[in-house]
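Inputs:
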Amino acid sequence: MDIMAHSLWSLALLPGPPSVAKVALGIAPDVTVFAASLTVQAIKGRFQPNFKTRKEMMQWYEQEDKHWVLNLYKWTHSLIIWSLVIVPIIVYSIIYVNLFPWFLLAAPLHILMDIPTHDHKSFPVEFLTPLSHYKLNGFHWSKPLVFGGNYIVLFFVEFFRVFVLKR
Ligand SMILES: [Zn+2]
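Outputs:
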C-alpha cells in the first residue's frame, strides 16, 4: 500500500489518540528501505530515473548493485523480525510500566496490509523471512479498484471510529 494509506490505517485501527509514533511505525517498513536506497544513491551521485512502469522500476532494482534494496525490503517486511523486536518491548511495558504500547503494532499492521496488496511482480512481501520465501501473489495496491476501495473502506472505518465509537 502507499505511505498515506499505511499512516491513516495506523491512526484508524490502533487504540488511543493520534500520534506521530503510530504513523512512524506504520510507515517504517517502507521508509527504512527507500531512505537507505536514496542515501546510497546520493553518496554514489547516481539518482533514480523516473520509472514509466512498475516493470521498469523492478528491472532497475534487480540490477546487481541494487539487489540489496530488495533484500532489505524482505527483512523490514518480516513478521518474524518485527515480532523479535516488539514482543520483548510489549512484555516489558506491560510488566514494568503497566501500559500496552499500541503504536508498536503499526509495523505488523503495515505488513498484514501489504501481504494481499502486493503481487509477485512488484516488491513481493516475504513476510516469513528468514524462515521461508513464501509470498502471496495478491492484488497490487495501485490497481484502481484496490486503491479506491481501500480509501472508501478507510473512510467508513474512520467515520465509525470518530462518530460512533467517539474515540
Ligand atoms: Zn510496505
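Remarks. The mean pLDDT is 94. The chain has one domain: 3-164.
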